[in-house]
Amino acid sequence: MRFRYLGNSGLKISEITYGNWLTHGSQVENEIAAQCVQAALDAGISTFDTADVYANTAAEAVLGDALKGERRESLEIFTKVYWPTGPRGHNDTGLSRKHILESINGSLTRLQTDYVDLYQAHRFDTETPLEETMQAFADIVRAGKVLYVGVSEWTADQIRAGHALAAELGFQLISSQPQYSMLWRVIEPEVVPTCRELGVGQIVWSPIAQGVLSGKYLPGQPPPAGSRATDEKGGADMIKRFLNDDVLTRVQGLRPIAEGLGLSMAQLAVAWVLQNDNVSSALVGASRPEQVHENVKASGVKLESDVLAQIDDVLGDVVERDADKTAANSPRTRAV
Ligand code: NDP
After folding, report:
1. Are 89 and 56 in contact (CB under 8 A)?
2. Is the CB of 52 under 6 A from ligand 1?
3. pLDDT digits (tens, 9 = 90+) for 78-92
4. Which domains, from first to last, does the chain contain?
5. If I label 286, which of 45, 112, 142, 236 is the partner at 20 to 30 A Cα–Cα?
6. 66-71: long-range contacts at Cβ-Cβ below 8 A with a sequence spacing of 24 or more?
7. Separation of CA 217 and ligand 1 centre (Å)
8. What is the pTM of this model?
9. Cβ contacts of residue 226 below 8 Å, gap of 6+?
10. 120 DSSP β-pair partners
11. pLDDT category, 332, cuts 50, 70, 90?
12. Are 60 and 79 in contact, with CB atoms under 8 Å apart?
């Protein structure tokens, strides 16, 4: 496993991060979840990502149990705040001072740790003044509960404004967590150039497009048994944006490219995001330990420019590149 700096901070993270959205506390049994975490540790992954909202707080608890007994200093544990949790009361959401200060305490208890390495604003909160949010982050950094602060799915302008306030308040906003894959490149025109300028690193989610870029979903055929597309607890709904025959046919065209390089299609997908020098880590999920073993082999793979060009030719116009899709990802108003 290779390691990269997270933005221009001094924090090193594994080039591949293990994330537990839709799996822990939901799609997979706790025993399988623990096996996936162990597979990640065995492969040299040191960085783990979760969120208070995943499985309505259960995912943090499953990860906390799975990491129990590991040397804390050898891990980087990331979580997030914004989406409604618990009974979804009127203050159980957003980036208000009240919710940030309360939510971090709940996350630390569930994760069984005194601090998280990175605390991320899961979306931009249009209803709370950014100054209030950043002051609350500054206070939990000072209190030692959080080492660094990041954001997720913020636009370039939002990142710039948050970064400036963080600097004024004396803490570091070092990361952005957007969706990024061969199929979803909306950060390339605006978010990435701004982050390069500011020294903010990307931790990119769904690099395998939720499993679609593994090539296992075939056009015109039902999804394989046990896959995310069959997970009625939430996964099926989340993956459906990619499940159309146009996309699936193009994706099959990547198979010879992967084979020519001696890679699986999932490895090619993870390696692809790691070619971007603003990407600090590829944030992969897994429903089985074998997937972790397979995907980690993408660390350190170099893809030459002719291969990148072939990938672009094969995928053609099914690639989403519209920069406005980042703004569309944050709700205009809070959910509750
Ligand atoms: P991926 O694109 O890595 O998809 C992971 C899923 O794809 C697995 O659960 C598995 O699903 C399937 N898969 C993985 N490897 C293989 C393989 N080798 N062969 C076949 N199928 C495979 O990422 P996720 O969508 O899971 O997201 C990763 C992480 O990103 C999350 O856990 C979370 O931490 C973060 N995230 C952040 C968001 C944000 O808003 N900040 C939003 C979403 C995710 P299955 O076996 O069930 O088909």
Report:
1. no
2. no
3. 999 999 999 999 999
4. 3-208+276-302+320-328 (3.20.20.100)
5. 112
6. 66/33, 66/34, 66/37, 66/38, 67/37, 67/111, 67/112, 68/112, 70/41
7. 14
8. 0.97
9. 287
10. 80, 150
11. confident
12. yes
